């Protein structure tokens, strides 16, 4: 029996930003200690003597990808400046979407990202965990004919 499985890992970075059109204090430059989680979803790799056997995605591979494509670009930077061509507004919602899009280009199993600016606020975005949406539906929906 194949069991759909997920793994999640948390990451941190410090950055400043502003929301120029915001009517409150967030329109001014300010910083956050951002936390974000990345979830990968899939079926564990077969037990075949390979490095990632029994895993969806190796945690180290995930960490290396996040370091290279996300943290190296945002940690201790002004997000409005470094992401100006990729993120329309540096809200948690848009940051989560950017992280998801960026990481899925490298690891298609990534299906969800949650971004937190404070201890009690976060934004989440999700995508189907498989690149082929039709294949995903066939594997998960028992009503689909086989």
Automatic annotation (TrEMBL):
Its cofactor is Zn(2+). Keywords: Lyase, Metal-binding, Zinc. Gene3D superfamilies: 6-pyruvoyl tetrahydropterin synthase/QueD. InterPro entries: 6-PTP_synth/QueD, 6-PTP_synth/QueD_sf. GO terms for molecular function: lyase activity; metal ion binding. Pfam families: PTPS. This is 6-pyruvoyl tetrahydrobiopterin synthase. It comes from marine sediment metagenome. The lineage of its organism: unclassified sequences, metagenomes, ecological metagenomes.
């Amino acid at each position: 029996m194949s069991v759909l499985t997920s793994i999640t890992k948390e990451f941190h970075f410090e950055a400043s930003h502003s929301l120029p059109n915001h009517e409150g204090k967030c329109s001014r430059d300010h910083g956050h200690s951002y936390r974000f989680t990345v979830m990968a979803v899939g079926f564990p790799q077969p037990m075949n003597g390979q490095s990632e056997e029994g895993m969806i995605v190796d945690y180290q591979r995930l960490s290396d990808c996040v370091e290279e494509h996300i943290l190296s670009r945002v940690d201790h930077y002004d997000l409005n400046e470094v992401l100006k061509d990729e993120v329309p507004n540096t809200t948690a919602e848009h940051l989560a979407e950017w992280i998801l899009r960026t990481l899925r280009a490298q690891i298609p199993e990534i299906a969800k990202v949650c971004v937190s600016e404070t201890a009690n606020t976060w934004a989440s975005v999700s995508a189907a965990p498989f690149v082929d949406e039709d294949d995903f539906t066939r594997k998960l929906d028992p009503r689909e004919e086989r």
